[in-house]
Each structure stands twice: as C-alpha cells, then as structure tokens.
Structures
1.
Amino acid sequence: MPDTKPFLAATFTESRMNEQTLQALHSSIQALGHQVPRLLQEHPDEGDFSSAFAELADPIMEFADRAGEDASEYAIQAIDELLIRAGKMDPAHRQT
C-alpha cells in the first residue's frame, strides 16, 4: 500500500484533526491494509470477508468518530480506498 500520509497531512492541515490523531489513524489504517491479503485468502466468501474486515475496521472508525468529524471523514475515505484496491468496493460507491 503506498504511503498516503504526506497527501493526507496536507489535506487536513487546516482541519481540527491534530498530527497525533492523524498519525494514529494512519498507522491503524496502514496495519489494516496489511491484513487485507490475509483476509481475502482466509475469507473467500463475500459475507465472511465483510464480517472479518468490519471486525478490524470498526475499532478504527470508533476512534475516528471520537476524534471528530475530520478524523471520521479521513478514516472513511482511507478504508473505502482499501476496499476498492481489494476489489471489494466499486469506486462509484466511494464516500466523499
């Protein structure tokens, strides 16, 4: 997964999300991204994959929700990108 932190930091420079929150979200989402190939292999059924992915993504979203609207928006977009790259989400359904 390419490093998107410089782009994301620039995107949210003027937001309320601080550098520490951005770093925590970035690290968590990057770790989730590293788990996607294993999840795809272990859960070839669409429903099983979705459940396993959600189990890992939900705590990230809960943290982002507590951190504020900017953090939630960032997390949603980054997690959507993981699903798109994995072929599990149509790019047309990406939340913006």
2.
Amino acid sequence: MHPSMLAKRQQSAQVRIMEAASALAKKHNVNPPQPVTQRQPDMAQMLRWEGIADFLDALTKPAEPETSKKQLAYIGMTAPERKAKGGTDEQK
C-alpha cells in the first residue's frame, strides 16, 4: 500500500476511534482519551495507545454503588433508633 494511502486510512481510523470513545465516555461518565501533541510520530502513537488503554481500563472498572439518602440516614441512626425502625445493631 502506498504510504500516503496508509497514512490517510490510519488518520481516518483514529478519528473514528476518538469519536466513538467520546460517545462512550459521555454514556459511562468517564473521561475520554485526550488528544496527543507530540512531534515524534512513534512517541505520539505510543501516547495514543496508552490513552486508549487507560480509557478502556476506566470503562471496565465496576461502578461504585451510590448510597441513597435513606441508606445514609439509616447508617447515621443510633442503635436504639435502628431497632425502633426494625433494624438490628449489626447494620451500621
């Protein structure tokens, strides 16, 4: 393949990857990979791959469960208050 055609296809794929990553980032509330500004092409490519790897790692981490206001209120109760609500001392 001619080098100019190869470069054109790589650039096109890169744009598509970054657009898809941005959409996924919004959907999953994580930071998308950041654009790379590096003069050395090999170094720039390595930084792009590392950014994409970090992004994918963030996507695959399990989400932390959100604690509802009810749960937080129950946690903040004293033991007698929990018992009055039907809870036990073990639930702190």
